[in-house]
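We modelled each protein-ligand pair independently. The example shown here corresponds to the biotin entry; the chain sequence is given first, followed by the ligand as SMILES.
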Amino acid sequence: MSAAATVLLDQTDSTNAEARRRADAGETGPVWIVARRQTSGRGRRGREWLSETGNLAATLLMTTAKAPAEAAQVTFIAALAVADLLDAFVVRDSVTIKWPNDVLIKGAKAAGILVESGTHPSGRLWLAVGIGVNLAHAPDDTERPATSVAAHLRPDIAYAPPVEAGAAVLADAFAVWMGRWETLGFQPVLDAWAARTPGLDQPCVARLGHETVSGVADGVAPDGSLRMRLADGSLRLISAGDVFFNEAA
Ligand SMILES: O=C(O)CCCC[C@@H]1SC[C@@H]2NC(=O)N[C@@H]21
């Protein structure tokens, strides 16, 4: 991927929606679209994503010749880049990833990733890699605990980074992981991701929309799907959904 430009908006509905509009209009990227404020931020599975002022809302718009299944691996790049961003500011050894792409500080969600895609006018695939990071604030009305960078700063750091600085650290980290993916392939990326993702051998529950499945995680498949061993001994591959670890149904 060539070096990405950055566009900083004071306000937009959603940086992912802005990326989609730009892709539909023929923009190829790579470009980071960063907003100080989103009025309709979206989360996974149709949920709303509230990003208060001071939090990072950013989307990388890019186009690729890869097939959709392979291109989806970019979520793992995003999770690793976000983990690096958090590592730069928060207390040591507190950042982990939860399958597939939530990034946690001391077990509470501090960042979420929403990758959307479509067909570019050129016929290639466009990707909108949307990343929300609770730099300054965390919502207090979430089903599961949420937290922020500001709540876990390293002792030698006085403030959470402003949006511009957070976006710059994120873009740099993303470029490093992207370079590894492009030159070495997905396996080393997946290995790095797995090393930061506890619970991949623990009891877990997957909420898949139409059904809830419980079992024991059994690592990840080569494409990053979660392998889940069910009570009857069968193996189920989970490629999307909400998964909660260390939990039985
Ligand atoms: O549900 C999740 O965990 C994913 C949240 C993704 C939020 C980010 S904020 C920047 C980008 N724009 C959006 O509307 N959503 C993503």
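Residues 14-16, 38, 41-44, 47, 49, 51, 57-59, 102, 112-114, 130-132 surround biotin (CB under 6 Å).
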